[in-house]
Design goal:
270 residues; alpha+beta; Nucleoside Triphosphate Pyrophosphohydrolase; 2 domains; six-stranded mixed beta sheet; binds zinc ion
């Protein structure tokens, strides 16, 4: 359904209302607002900022970004990470998309080529410069993530950003320009912990909206070298026996899924 129609007909729809880096929720239990446009009086002046996100439970889902304005309402809010953690897998995709679209619109007001004001394209998610024809799409940054095994052990590392969480995870890093996903796996693993890997196997992928990554998962076998952590990125890295793992990420994230799957496979081999 088009945005115009939804507003004119005042159909029941799901609304993801983003304010700063939080989402407004209808109550403490639900994550998405299910209501009519006429009920959203506190964001009425944002009519031009509505974006179609997709469908959920056979109803349209719209994003409304109120940017950094101080809104007058008494509804509860939730941070984006909290929403992702507590939502269903289907909601996860919608929240990730909503946040990436909001961020895209906030950071593409002006043309990067000629500096003119950009216009939002009405039939696809893009901004367009009417002066020079430059068109921008929401950025997606591929990022590899890899579970490395050696016999009955997994290589897990604590990133410097997770220093105080006690959490150990798989290695991950952004793909560089001109690089294949597999080349990125070999380079990142060598840079971060100084070991070689072989027998790369594609595992799956997951969008991760912090801020616009697409995590591409691999399972790889250790091929040589001693663990030598890159101090800028890794504070600790070790081999862990699959029966004695440290605290690892939940299976909501692809890191958690990679660890769970690799452990299950190694156990099956025992
Ligand atoms: Zn331009």
């Amino acid at each position: 359904m088009s945005i115009k129609k939804a507003i004119q007909n005042d159909h029941l729809a799901f609304w993801i209302i983003v304010n700063k880096d939080r989402m407004i929720r209808p109550d403490d239990q639900s994550l998405m607002m299910l209501c009519r446009w006429s009920a959203l009086t506190f964001v009425r002046h944002y009519e031009d900022n509505i974006v179609v996100l997709g469908e959920y439970e056979k109803k349209s889902v719209f994003l409304l970004d109120t940017e950094n304005e101080q809104l007058e309402h008494e509804l509860p809010t939730v941070g984006l990470r909290g929403a992702l953690m507590h939502g269903s897998p289907e909601q996860f995709g919608l929240f990730a998309k909503a946040w990436q679209y909001a961020l895209f619109m906030r950071t593409h007001r002006y043309c990067g080529s000629c500096g003119n004001r950009m216009r939002q394209v009405d039939w696809e998610m893009a901004t367009h410069c009417d002066r020079c024809g430059h068109r921008c799409y929401p950025r997606v940054s591929p990022c590899i993530i890899v579970a490395i095994y050696r016999g009955q052990e997994l290589l897990l590392a604590m990133g410097t950003r997770h220093k105080n969480t006690g959490m150990y995870s798989t290695l991950a890093g952004f793909v560089e320009s001109g690089e294949s996903l597999e080349e990125a796996v070999h380079r990142e693993v060598m840079e971060e912990v100084g070991v070689k890997v072989k027998n790369l196997e594609y595992f799956g992928s997951q969008p991760w909206p912090f801020p616009h990554s697409l995590m591409v998962g691999y399972i790889a076998e250790y091929a040589g070298g001693e663990i030598t952590p890159d101090e800028n990125e890794i504070c600790d890295a070790n081999w862990y026996h699959i029966d004695q793992l440290p605290l690892v990420p939940p299976t909501l994230s692809i890191a958690g899924q990679l660890i769970e799957t690799t452990v299950a496979r190694l156990k099956a081999k025992e």
